[in-house]
UniProtKB/TrEMBL annotation:
Annotated TM spans: 84-101, 108-127, 133-152, 173-204, 210-228, 240-260, 266-283
Organism: Romboutsia weinsteinii
Compartments (UniProt record): Cell membrane; Membrane
Family designation: Belongs to the 4-toluene sulfonate uptake permease (TSUP) (TC 2.A.102) family.
Protein name, per record: Probable membrane transporter protein
Membrane-topology annotation of the record: Multi-pass membrane protein
Statement: the UniProt record of this protein carries the keyword rRNA-binding: no
Assigned keywords, A-Z: Cell membrane, Membrane, Transmembrane, Transmembrane helix
Amino acid sequence: MVNIVRGLFVVLLAAFGVVFGKDYAKANKEGKLDDASFAKSGITGFVTDFFDTLGIGSFAPTIAMSKALKINIPDKIMPGTLNVAHTIPVVVEALIFTTVIEVESLTLISLIGAAVLGSYIGAGIISKMDERVLQLIMGLALAVTAVLMFLAHPRVNLMPGGGDAIGLSGINLILGIIGNFILGALMTAGIGLYSPCMAMVYFLGMSPDVAFPIMMGSCAMLMPVASMKFVKEGAYSRKASLAISIFGVLGVFAAAFFVNNMPMDLLKAVVVVVIAYTSFTMLKAASKKKDSVELERA
């Protein structure tokens, strides 16, 4: 069953590759390539997808680095560039981690399917909710999770938590499906799936490394379809996307080797840091939006 999922990853990747390749070749032939820096984009791709493979995410870091390095990607096409540029690295991540990390087939397929359905069915509902409130709730929830996971870490051992299971069954499987459905829907509001998925996996008693194939597999199913739409509309930076894709894949392989050889205690510590960092960024974003609203009212 897992091989079928990997097969779908490959099919989606191939379809995206054809669409992306044709569009780039056509733009190059017609002299319509943008003036984004290929070298700076390549550096950005390696760094951001390295850390994406560790579960930190790539979108926010890419925006930050593109501004700092002055890559010259207009804000108007930034969303399309983020999706197109990171699609190939994310699919590679999913292929690697569904191969090197063992997850029960039913759990993997159910949770990936739930996230995909959530991103489509739940999009209409989530998109109408206040983004600042969502960020505030998720930020606080992740902060509590980070604290609890820190206290449960083997080196601290102040409370029980987590587990070594590679799959879910019964009520926990149902909770996992519902949880990933919600997380898939929240992606439409700009809230990343990685850290919340790590937290959910932890509380359902699974091993922390099981989160990697689940969260990356979920995004690998979503991003190629969304990215093909951006490509067809021309709403992305072609040069930056190609450079980030190429060097991002190299970053993925470097990080995957690092994660695969990481001691479990260290991996758990990394997960705690990732969740705490995401909590901070969400709360900071929510605070900025509150300040901007108050200024507008004033």
